């Protein structure tokens, strides 16, 4: 399959637009009713209070930093499918009208950590547009099952060259399963069809190189810039100085995460500080490039910035067996509180300081097989059981959350 921007399937597109029109009409009628009763503003306050209760990041540190985090969360939460609206016809988070990797790689991981049900709706967009992706692949001569669809990207080069989006989509599905263990999406709702199609696509695009003993992608000139023994540090030191300083906003957050993984906090902060050149006042609107050009309001940059908090400062890593954490952040941040992380159906809050970490299970999973979780500390191997409404505290160190090992 080839997930290039904005592909649609003709038949399903018409149905989706009819449903969308109906839902918008219902929302309009509901809104007019609230206006008539004088309760529209109150309903707005209540709806956002419910969202913030399930998704909150508080930083005891510089005020502009906290404001940037809240601004990013506000705009990303505004862009996701309404919670509790399982049949809402979500049409993707777009960049200049096209659903690129901006959705699946930059924005989606943040949503997944807090609201897996909204993340699922994002994945269902990819399921609904699978036929169009299959059509794109067939037109390029690669192996897929036949279907109908069309590519609507205005420049052909993007449709032909942005093949990394297939990997972005596949990773999003994998991350969802690791966080939720939800088999229904794959077995009954089309998720497996997406995974299978992407696998077929890549298998048809690679050839084995006997001399190098690895696979090459057909039609791509892959030049290995770094030898295999080069470290992550070398990658950062080589690419950081040659990256366009006027480049897109999400760039700096990825460098920051790389440096934080190496425990180079000062170098990470040099990259994080660049993000603020893309934030405009007074409403914390992000622009794609620091000179004001490009997309506005740039959700992709916000997604990267938030990932630097979650996967950088908190050190979260989503794996098949656990949710890892390894906190590290600059000295001007005294405490980092992250409320509402969802793992295997349970809701967790994390409080990090330099000296102590506290993890609380605020709500346990309704699935009894998944509801018994524990914290494992990397340094000592100590296991700390998590119970609903209770907290565990320990000296700040790396560790992970997993299903309790005593379970079969």
TrEMBL record:
Kindly name one Pfam family recorded for this protein. Answer: Glyco_hydro_65C
Q: Residues in domain Glycoside hydrolase family 65 central catalytic? A: 90-219
Q: Boundaries of each Glycoside hydrolase family 65 C-terminal domain copy?
A: 317-370
**GO cellular component: a single term:** cytosol
Top-level lineage group: Eukaryota
- List the protein's name: Acid trehalase-like protein 1
What family is it from? Belongs to the glycosyl hydrolase 65 family.
List the source organism. Answer: Naja naja
PANTHER family associated with the record: GLYCOSYL HYDROLASE-RELATED, PROTEIN-GLUCOSYLGALACTOSYLHYDROXYLYSINE GLUCOSIDASE
List the lineage, top down: Eukaryota, Metazoa, Chordata, Craniata, Vertebrata
Q: Which GO terms describe its biological process?
A: carbohydrate metabolic process
């Amino acid at each position: 399959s080839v997930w290039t921007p904005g592909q649609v399937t003709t038949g399903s597109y018409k149905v989706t637009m009819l449903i969308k029109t109906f839902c918008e009409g219902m929302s309009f009628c509901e809104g007019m009713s609230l206006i008539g009763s004088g309760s529209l503003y109150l309903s707005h306050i209540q709806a956002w209070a419910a969202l913030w209760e399930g998704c909150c990041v508080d930083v005891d540190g510089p005020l502009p930093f906290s404001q940037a985090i809240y601004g990013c969360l506000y705009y990303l939460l505004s862009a996701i499918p309404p919670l509790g609206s399982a049949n809402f016809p979500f049409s993707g988070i777009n960049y200049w009208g096209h659903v690129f990797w901006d959705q699946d790689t930059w924005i989606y991981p943040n949503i997944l950590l807090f609201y897996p049900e909204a993340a699922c709706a994002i994945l269902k967009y990819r399921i609904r547009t699978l036929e169009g992706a299959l059509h794109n692949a067939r037109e390029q001569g690669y192996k897929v099952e036949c279907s109908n669809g069309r590519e609507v990207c205005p420049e052909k080069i993007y449709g032909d060259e942005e093949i990394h989006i297939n990997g972005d989509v596949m990773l999003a599905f994998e991350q969802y399963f690791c966080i939720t263990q939800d088999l229904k999406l794959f077995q009954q709702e089309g998720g497996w069809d997406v995974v299978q199609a992407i696998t077929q696509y890549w298998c048809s695009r690679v050839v084995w190189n006997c001399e190098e003993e690895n696979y090459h992608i057909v039609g791509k000139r892959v030049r290995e810039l770094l030898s295999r023994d080069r470290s992550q540090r070398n990658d950062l030191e080589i690419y950081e100085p040659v990256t366009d300083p006027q480049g897109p906003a999400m760039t700096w957050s990825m460098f920051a995460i790389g440096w934080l993984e190496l425990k180079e906090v000062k170098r990470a902060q040099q990259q994080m500080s660049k993000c603020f050149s893309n934030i405009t006042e007074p409403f914390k609107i992000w622009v794609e490039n620091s000179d004001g050009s490009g997309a506005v309001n740039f959700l992709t940059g916000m997604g990267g910035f938030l990932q630097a908090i979650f996967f950088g400062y908190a050190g979260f890593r989503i794996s098949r067996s656990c949710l890892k954490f390894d906190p590290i952040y600059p000295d001007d941040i005294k405490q980092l509180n992250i409320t509402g992380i969802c793992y295997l159906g349970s809701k967790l809050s994390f409080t990090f300081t330099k000296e102590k970490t506290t993890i609380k299970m605020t709500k346990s999973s309704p699935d009894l097989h998944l509801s018994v979780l524990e914290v494992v500390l990397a340094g000592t191997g100590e296991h700390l059981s998590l119970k609903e409404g209770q907290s565990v505290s320990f000296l700040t160190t790396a560790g992970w959350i997993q299903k309790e090992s005593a379970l079969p």
